[in-house]
UniProtKB/TrEMBL annotation:
Annotated organism of origin: Chromobacterium sphagni
Lineage: Bacteria, Pseudomonadati, Pseudomonadota, Betaproteobacteria, Neisseriales
Listed name of the protein: Paraquat-inducible protein A
Superkingdom of origin: Bacteria
Transmembrane segment boundaries: 46-64, 98-122, 142-161, 173-192
A GO cellular-component term linked to this record: plasma membrane
Signal peptide residue numbers: none
Entry-linked PANTHER family: INTERMEMBRANE TRANSPORT PROTEIN PQIA (PTHR30462:SF3), INTERMEMBRANE TRANSPORT PROTEIN PQIB-RELATED (PTHR30462)
InterPro entries (UniProt xref): PqiA-like, PqiA-PqiB_transport
Coiled-coil residue spans: none
Pfam families per the UniProt record, alphabetical: PqiA
Amino acid sequence: MRSETERTTACHDCDLLLQLPASAGDRACIHCPRCGALLHEQSDQALHAGTALALAGMLTFVIANSYPVLVLEIAGNRNAATLWQTALALQRQGMAEVALLVLFTGIVMPALELASMLYLLLPLQLGRAPPGFPVVMRLRQLARPWCMVEVFLLGVLVSLVKLVHLASVRPGIGLWAFFGLIVLMAACASRFRPVQLWERYQACRIME
Ligand SMILES: [Zn+2]
């Protein structure tokens, strides 16, 4: 029979069922005995780091979308466009599907992911349970595979290399900011611990 001081948990990587103590006490981390995955973390370091990275990501996202991604010079004519202007130009040239794809992968999904992470992390950091926490957690899980800033940047780099023969092409501040955004989002995702967030959410609800 299961002891009252224990709780059953499944490893998120290898599905091994384990009995963990209800309170891990001073033990900083508990790892899965079969695959070594991190199952429990006592410190709030990941939560603090995740919040800081999500805030930095949001700032970088604003910079990436406010400055030109590429600067083109053809026969003395200088053209610089932000991602949003590029999508509009594509739409005007009859490539509505490509414009939609650029908009979706480069602007909408990263914005949604960053906003959802901040919505979940910031109130928990302040000891409050965000309203609709379970729905936002599930939506983030669903939306994550569609956030493809890396794929979008790869496309930009391929066109940059192809255009070099035709015109003078320089990467803009926006492109560098997008590179930074990829690193920040990956770092933030690596510190996103759903189990820890669910536990924190439960604790905040009890206290409210
Ligand atoms: Zn495991």
